[in-house]
């Protein structure tokens, strides 16, 4: 059998998504193209795309046979068993993965560690916070979730959650409580959570039979694609990722030629029910720190005219007074409501009235308020897995250039395919102008 020599050539880069188109050519002169997304962070994914298949096997075999040189920086996941060497053991394990034979695999977590888990993942699942519950629902795994936290959950968006084992009203959970819940896999919250590192330590020190999933939960598509693969529900996860990619590409194409000074200026706010004229939280963006998914969205708008309070000291959020808005006068204010005092049994008109009353108090003298240019949505809608599909619709309230047809299609598909409720059933997730 003729050996195959694998050559990897990056032929295009999509700057908006950080995605490269890679052409892999074999010794048989056949070739294929793969999209290098770097979001399936499972060892064995040698070519950094969204799948693990025979193309990855060709690469690993070529390296193991000494016909190609492994570039561990560009292709770290070619090392299938994560031991620092590529040899026949990697080939054997990768063949099992491709055949979906039960085995142990490794993925890269939010701390950069290679974490060992069962493959495919089966059995009972625990979720740390509403975002992880939302992810389980998206992947069609909610019936497998037997334990969850109660914070930011409700019986409309997460039906039956009160019947599951409770991790309490928070996202920092005692690892012993996780073990007590009897789950086979725990999907961790990673922002301020101590559960993920503590769970890893417990598993490593005691050999507890538990799969710990702790990719940075802010990396939404990385979580969807990787966990979708590990749970063997890739059809669902890749369908979602494809639509999310269409939305991000469309946003870039629609806005790339609009100069900053021709765009409306925008400020983004985390609006709490306790906000006062002396204490309003303006969201910002730190390259290295945690950031709200709304901030990541606004940062992705080409040439964005973003009015920020954190330019001198980039951060997740900065508290300002109403005077700051009067001094800067953003054309639009996009806000996400948190602890606004709304409930699942309130009508949309009642919810709008709650927002109007608070906005009149803290933004009443601004041009944005008086021009009807304050746009509201819930924190749960814009800081969770709904964000990549509903965000175009949100931005269409600000930018005329947005593709309204795609925005509406993606928004509707979120509720039709990836949620267990409709926006009519849970009007708190509506997007609306704050007007009388």
What does it look like?
By secondary structure, the protein is of the alpha/beta class. It has three domains: 7-101, no CATH class; 125-232, Nitrogenase molybdenum iron protein domain (Rossmann fold, 3-Layer(aba) Sandwich), CATH 3.40.50.1980; 258-433, Nitrogenase molybdenum iron protein domain (Rossmann fold), CATH 3.40.50. The protein is built from 14 helices and 16 strands. A six-stranded mixed beta sheet has the order 13-12-11-14-15-16. Helix 6 (220-230) runs antiparallel to helix 7 (234-255), helix 7 (234-255) runs parallel beside helix 13 (387-396) and helix 13 runs antiparallel to helix 14 (404-417). Mean pLDDT is 91; it is low at 1-29. This is Periplasmic binding protein. GO terms for molecular function: hydrolase activity, hydrolyzing O-glycosyl compounds.
């Amino acid at each position: 059998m003729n050996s195959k020599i694998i050559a990897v050539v990056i032929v295009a880069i999509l700057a908006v998504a950080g995605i490269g188109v890679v052409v892999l050519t074999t010794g048989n002169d056949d070739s294929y193209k793969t999209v290098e997304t770097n979001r399936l962070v499972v060892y064995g994914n040698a070519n950094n795309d969204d799948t693990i298949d025979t193309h990855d096997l060709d690469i690993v075999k070529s390296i193991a046979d000494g016909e190609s040189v492994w570039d561990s920086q560009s292709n770290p996941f070619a090392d299938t068993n994560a031991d620092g060497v590529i040899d026949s053991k990697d080939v054997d394990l990768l063949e099992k993965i491709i055949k979906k034979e039960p085995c142990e695999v490794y993925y890269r977590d939010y701390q950069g560690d290679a974490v060992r888990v069962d493959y495919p993942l089966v059995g009972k699942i625990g979720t740390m916070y509403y975002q992880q519950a939302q992810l389980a629902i998206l992947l069609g795994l909610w019936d497998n979730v037997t334990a969850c936290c109660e914070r930011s959950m409700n019986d409309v968006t997460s039906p039956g959650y009160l019947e599951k084992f409770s991790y309490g009203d928070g996202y920092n959970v005692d690892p012993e409580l996780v073990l007590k819940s009897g789950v086979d896999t725990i999907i961790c919250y990673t922002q301020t959570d101590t559960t993920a590192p503590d769970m890893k330590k417990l598993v490593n020190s005691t050999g507890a039979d538990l799969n710990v999933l702790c990719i940075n939960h802010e990396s939404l598509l990385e979580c969807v694609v990787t966990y979708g693969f590990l749970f063997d529900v890739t059809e669902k996860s890749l369908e979602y990722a494809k639509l999310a990619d269409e939305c991000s590409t469309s946003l870039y194409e629609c806005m790339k030629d609009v100069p900053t000074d021709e765009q409306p200026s925008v400020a983004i706010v985390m609006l709490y029910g306790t906000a006062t004229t002396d204490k309003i939280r303006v969201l910002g963006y730190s390259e290295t720190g945690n950031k709200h998914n709304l901030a990541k969205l606004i940062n992705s708008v080409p040439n964005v005219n973003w009015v920020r309070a954190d330019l001198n000291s980039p951060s997740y959020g900065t508290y300002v007074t109403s005077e700051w808005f009067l001094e800067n006068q953003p054309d639009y204010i996009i806000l996400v409501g948190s602890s606004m005092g709304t409930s699942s049994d309130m009508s949309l008109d009642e919810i709008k009235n709650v927002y109007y009353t608070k906005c009149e108090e803290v933004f009443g003298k601004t041009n944005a308020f008086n021009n009807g240019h304050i746009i509201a949505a819930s924190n749960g809608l814009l800081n969770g897995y709904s964000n990549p599909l509903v965000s175009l619709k949100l931005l269409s309230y600000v930018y005329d250039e947005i593709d309204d047809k795609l925005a509406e299609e993606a928004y509707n598909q979120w509720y039709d395919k990836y949620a267990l409720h409709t926006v009519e059933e849970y009007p708190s997730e509506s997007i609306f102008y704050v007007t009388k």
